[in-house]
Amino acid sequence: MHHSKRFGCQVYPLLFLIIFAVSGLWAQNPSGNPTPASPPAQAQPENPQENQIRLAQEAQARIRARRRERTQRVVEDTYSHKFEVYGGGGYTRFRPGGPLQHINESAWNGGVTGYFWPRLGITVDLRGYYGNAFVTPNPFNIFKPSISEYTFMAGPQYRLVRREHWAISAQVLAGAAKGNFNGNGAQFPGTLIGLWSNGSYLSAAAGVPVDYNLGPGLAVRLQPGYMLTTFGGTPQVKNLGFTAGLVYRFGRQ
CATH classification of 69-250 is 2.40.160.20, yes or no? Predict the structure, then answer.
């Protein structure tokens, strides 16, 4: 009897511990089934439309980069020439004498520019102007005599804007102008009918050459400008006009 009591004292605590452990596990998993491990998170599949947009944007960026590189190469190739020769025709308004009205004159021009710096060059320019003056009635029966002026000038030219297809420059020139103001082919003095006197006088000009490039070495130029002459020792300050022609570039800086 004593043995059974001692056995019960040993078994009952052990059964109590087993029941307590089982009840704790049951509380953690009421269903009685083992808790499965959660599957690893998977990356969301990429949206095909977003992928196409991204690829298109990357392609456009590459195209723009290649276009910029090509444009830069063309600009460098075009404006790295050391010399440019130009020539063409033109038009100006000119007063042939103090008491006379302005007349229209046709012109030719030509010159060369040497670029000893990337944007700045030195220009040497030649021009010729031709027209018929409207003189007042006179006792010499001379009407609309033919006159002409020739200029030789030089000065700086600076490229303000350089683009793939066009360029804008500024030009300032100074030099001499020779005037032929005879009243007729027999060298009749033009001063007797109101014209300026023959001779060479100081002249200056300012212009804005605008070039449209046909290629790296060839361009079409339109140049509005102003010219100051001093025939007869009197400044002629309202000589406005333009020239137009071709520009040929050659040599390398």
Answer: yes
